[in-house]
Design goal:
By secondary structure, the chain is an alpha/beta fold. Among the domains are: 69 residues; 137 residues, Rossmann fold. It contains 15 helices and 13 strands. The strands form two sheets. It has a seven-stranded mixed β-sheet with strand order 2-1-3-4-5-12-13. Strands 8-7-6-9-10-11 form a six-stranded parallel β-sheet, with helices on both faces. It is globular.
């Protein structure tokens, strides 16, 4: 049996389609007695243990260690959905990692192992190239909730995009030493004093679901413009560089042939495709962009079909994104659901303090 720890209640029905066996969720509200409750429900050394992200369950992890059991870490994939995860939307991809997790560079993940050691076939490289071109043509990114619009930027300056992130996100805590969005802006300005810097706050922060807001007056001390509620391609279409801590926007910029500077250690850094302030000695292989895409989009995640919720390949997921985006952006019901989920999360945070 499969036992799942750290999965919020709302995730339960969304997670089930990704697994052959019905998950047994050991819920967050059982305090520090997760292991006791799991044992009561049949956990044994032949079971499989799944934990959301980097959440810590010391007794469960010790039990797994004592019984030589593997622990699988689970997170959203890199092409997740139409809409924000924090708005409780169905993910179309997940990653299930047996070694670590992609956003924690303190140890090797399955993705890093793939990128470091896998011998990419011509078929995989061909699929990756097709996917890369399709993502560029259709302007598909991780969340896909905002429309892309025409923006005007100076033609006589280097345009740099700085994507904001959720500051309490594990990718920042583990992969960027707890750096903040304001420090990222300051560092970017220090390194590119004459550039035109565009700051785009993270959508989860914009809607109030997560932390990481920077006061507009503070941000404008280090950037020239702030853009909100537009698709990421609205800025990437003009960007000469992207400066980031660990944001997936850096990877999406690489796919589009844009120079990327990293101040943390995201999964896509260290392969000879970016300018990295913090190199990783384990990563000593030079990859092509299509090898990186093949590892991150084809081999690492698992996907479900947006309509049938059955396992599928990435090509089937992205082929339906245009229609899904139109429905999401024009649906009054979806807007009501988003508003309700945000209010519920605000209440939950208040009660948790």
């Amino acid at each position: 049996m499969n036992y799942f720890f750290g999965f919020s209640y709302w995730k339960h029905p969304l997670i089930e389609p990704f697994f052959d066996k019905k998950p047994i969720f050991i819920n967050l509200l059982c305090g520090k007695k997760h292991l006791k409750k799991a044992l009561q429900r049949g956990l044994n050394p032949q079971s499989a243990i799944y934990i959301w992200g980097k959440k810590k369950f010391p007794k469960v992890e010790q039990y797994a260690h004592d019984n030589a059991m593997a622990i699988f870490r689970v997170e959203d994939g890199f092409i997740r959905s139409v809409g924000l995860g924090s708005d409780l939307t169905q993910p179309y991809s997940l990653v299930v990692d047996s070694r670590g997790i992609y956003f924690d560079p303190t140890s090797e993940s399955d993705l890093e192992n793939i990128l470091q050691h896998h011998s990419f076939s011509e078929v995989e490289i061909g699929r990756a190239k097709d996917i890369r071109h399709y993502l560029i043509e259709k302007k598909i990114s991780k969340y896909n909730l905002y429309s892309n619009i025409e923006l005007n930027f100076p033609k006589d300056k280097k345009i740099i995009l700085v994507p904001g992130q959720v500051e309490d996100d594990a990718s920042i805590l583990y992969g960027a030493n707890g750096m903040t969005n304001l420090k990222l802006l300051q560092q970017t300005r220090a390194n590119r004093p004459d550039a035109y810097i565009v700051y785009k706050p993270h959508p989860d922060v914009l809607v109030g679901n997560r932390t990481g807001a920077v006061m507009e007056s503070e941000a404008l001390c280090y950037c020239d413009r702030i853009v909100t509620e537009v698709g990421i391609d609205s800025v990437l279409a003009y960007a000469d560089e992207v400066h980031t801590m660990t944001s997936l926007v850096g990877f999406e910029a690489m796919i589009r042939g844009i120079n990327v500077v990293t101040y943390g250690l995201p999964f896509y850094a260290g392969w000879g495709l970016s300018e990295d302030f913090y190199p990783c000695e384990r990563r000593n292989r030079i990859l092509s962009i299509d090898e990186l895409v093949a590892g991150a989009y084809l081999l690492y995640p698992r996907y479900i079909h947006p309509e049938t919720k059955k396992p599928c390949e990435i090509e089937e997921v992205v082929s339906l994104f245009d229609r899904e985006r139109n429905v999401y952006r024009n649906s009054i019901l979806q807007k009501i659901r988003n508003w309700t989920s945000r209010k519920s999360q605000q209440i939950y945070r208040i009660l948790s303090n």
